[in-house]
Amino acid sequence: MKISKLLTLVAALMLVCAAPAFAAGQSTLVPKIASFDFFVDYSGSMMMSHEKTGKNKMEMTKKLLSAINAKIPALGYEGGLHTFAPSTEIQPVAAWDKASYEKAIKKLNENEDTFARMTPMGTGLQKATYAKAMKRKAAMIMISDGESNLGSDPVAEAQLLLSTNPGLCLHVISMADKPAGQATLDAIAKLNGCSVTAKGPELLANEAALDKFVRDVFYEEKAAPAAAAVAPMDEVIVLRSIQFALNSAKLDATATSILMETAAILKSKKGSVEVAGHTCSLGTDEYNQKLSEARAKSVKDFLVKQGVESSRLITKGYGESKPKYDNSTEETRKLNRRVELSFIK
After folding, report:
1. pLDDT top residue among 136 and 326
2. Contact, 28 vs 221, CB < 8 A?
């Protein structure tokens, strides 16, 4: 097989030649949670300057929210934005995207009156009833200076919130500039072993710390598995660009263009070829098995029309049994709806 021909496909085809097992050197982002909500302290003390930085605490909070929003990967999350003291819904928990969430962040005002704006943190936690409807696993990320000078005990209310909402984790970003406020936030963070804690000013000043916070709360990186060793002379063509719509085995214009190039390569070679169809994880095993077989047949039929001998092409459907990517998001499920060709020794 000529490498130069493969290169003309502009990465649409990937040739894997016989070699010992090796690490792929790539990783996949896997979401840790299905939904999140930023729970922002909107009290009078958050409209004041932070004693150590001299900056308005709410202004810092808005900058931090924007910075985090920019770093959240598109892995199919639902996201919301709520405040307490007073309790308001800035953004309901719904399908998240960066642009709409950034608009919600801008609705926060850093210049609200400080007079008579006390901090009923416990009451705010009590009113966070929307947490019950959040998809699990769920993350509530509290941003506060920890001051609580009105209403019920915030630590007790946080404990009640967690005990009545299994699958919910409460994370804490501290804007505290007083020991008592920090002590309250520390006590809340200790209520659940999954809690990720950080200090807001430090996240704003240290991008590495910000990256770590986003990673610790939102996702993990999983290394791609090492490729299995294959017998000498085995070759595999992975049709990465041959992707199918959900529930479909139809080839589109992009697919047929690539398959015309593929047919030319196959006709220059000898030997039998397995045409393997695959699906994502949506649907029943029985349905996905039939769909993968239909996808393999679509590719075979097209290649035969291009002059590849039908007797050389052996179709096989693998259903959802051999995913190459995590099936947790639509983006990765799309990549699993594929066809692979391999030369049979």
Report:
1. 136
2. yes
Better pLDDT: 336 or 204:
204
Domain 3-24+226-343: which topology? 60s Ribosomal Protein L30; Chain: A; (3.30.1330)
pTM for the complete prediction? 0.59
Q: Measured between alpha carbons, how far is 338 from 295 in angstroms, rounded to an integer?
A: 8
Percent of the chain as helix, strand, coil, to the nearest 5: 35, 25, 40
Which superfamily does CATH assign the domain made up of 29-222 to? von Willebrand factor, type A domain (3.40.50.410)
SS3 111: coil
Other CB atoms within 10 Å distance of the CB of residue 257: 14
pLDDT digits (tens, 9 = 90+) for 116-142: 666 788 888 999 999 999 999 999 999
178 or 345, which is more confident? 178
* Other C-beta atoms lying within 10 Å of the C-beta of residue 305: 12
pLDDT at 224: 58
Q: Where are the domains of the chain?
A: 3-24+226-343, 29-222
pLDDT in tens, 236-273: 555 444 667 778 888 887 778 788 888 888 888 888 89
Burial class (CB in 10 A: 0-12, 13-18, 19+), 268: exposed
- Strand, helix or coil for residue 340: strand
Per DSSP, the residues of 185-228 read HHHHHTT-TT--EEEHHHHHH-HHHHHHHHHHHHEEEEEPPPBP
Instruction: Residue 275: name the closest of 298, 309, 291, 258 by CA.
Output: 298
The helix (H) or strand (E) run that includes residue 28 is: strand 27-31
- Cα 25 to chain centroid, rounded: 20
Task: Categorise residue 267: left if φ over 0, alpha if ψ from -120 to 50, beta otherwise.
Answer: alpha
Residue 212 token pair: 């770590």
Kind of pairing, strands 168-174 and 197-199?
A: parallel
pLDDT at 15 over 60: no
